[in-house]
Amino acid sequence: MFRSVCLLPGFLLLCFCEKRLLLTDQNVVQALQTELQAIRTKLQSLESDNKALRSEIAQIKRQGLSTYIIWGRKDCPHINGTSLIYTGITASKHFNEVGSGVTMLCLPHDPDSVPSDFLSVHTTGGYSGRIWGSEYEFTYRSVAIDDDAPCAVCQVQAESVIMVPGKRHCPSGWKNEYVGMLIGSWTGEHPSDYICLDENPEFFEGTRSHNDNGRTLYPIRATCGSLPCPPYVNDQFISCIVCSQ
Ligand SMILES: [Ca+2]
Q: 53: domain range?
């Protein structure tokens, strides 16, 4: 790499690596021209890469990031732009308890303790709610009655995520994240969320088919009346799909 160029009457002088080279040697001139061309080519390649990366970053910023929970699976769908945040346990209130919460939660496998000076069940005298794991109350594909249900929290490169009940196809312009069946509680139980269970549900091996109840998971069927039939069909179970855009 040359340090500087000196112009003297009649010839060109380069200060090259602390040495002064007189550019009357055509071999040196040719070598420098070749090196210069290689640098130009490399620079053009870097500029092209830089432009592509800027475009990709701008696209990601425009799209934003969203999250959703896939119920019944230990991992997120293996599709481009969707990644796992954590895997967990499908959990909510006990089917036979009135209180506690009503939302379905994805509890992680590695919980952190509350602060050591927080309440204990003894100091509250039992005035607290509970959370339970969940069990399938049906047998379908890989799962059986009393199998415990996993879940996974997923991040997706999209501005929005929606669950569309009653559909197996996303609206135009939306991408399919996963498809499944609408799940809730039995009509005679205390309720929790409606959730979209993946159509290929999984289970936890260690507690397979062991009946501990907790949050019980039942398929949801249509009832004609205030719900118009057609298009709905009485007693037909409801599908669902999760879509991103
Ligand atoms: Ca079980």
A: 2-62
